[in-house]
Design goal:
The protein has 104 residues and is mostly beta strands. It has a domain of 68 residues. It starts with 6 loop residues before the first strand and ends with a strand.
């Protein structure tokens, strides 16, 4: 997210991964504690996903999109799964989302 006015953000983005078979899998929160971040005009708030990369070529996970709901929001944004992000080893339950932070 990016804003045009100074503001703050805290918490976790809600993240669901959409798979090639059209199922949706909610991603669990990681163990990090959220912090309040101050965003100046033009700053970005981002979040991280953590998972083990499957280098075997036999991954059963085939993500196509991520559905993101920013903290304290009700609208969802659908993003394409990043090219080159690597295959997920294990199941979507092995993926964790971490709190929002700035890119600074």
């Amino acid at each position: 997210m990016r804003g045009s006015a100074t503001g703050s953000a805290t918490g976790f983005a809600g993240v669901d991964i959409k798979d090639a078979d059209h199922t949706s899998n909610p991603i669990h929160r990681g163990h990090a504690q959220p912090r309040i971040i101050t965003l100046k005009p033009g700053d970005a708030a981002v979040f991280d996903l953590s998972y083990t990369i499957d280098t075997s070529g036999n991954s059963l996970a085939h993500p196509t999109n991520i559905q993101v709901t920013p903290p304290n929001e009700t609208h969802t944004v659908t993003l394409n799964w990043p090219t080159g992000a690597g295959q997920i080893k294990g199941a979507y339950t092995d993926v964790e989302v971490y709190p929002t932070h700035t890119t600074n």
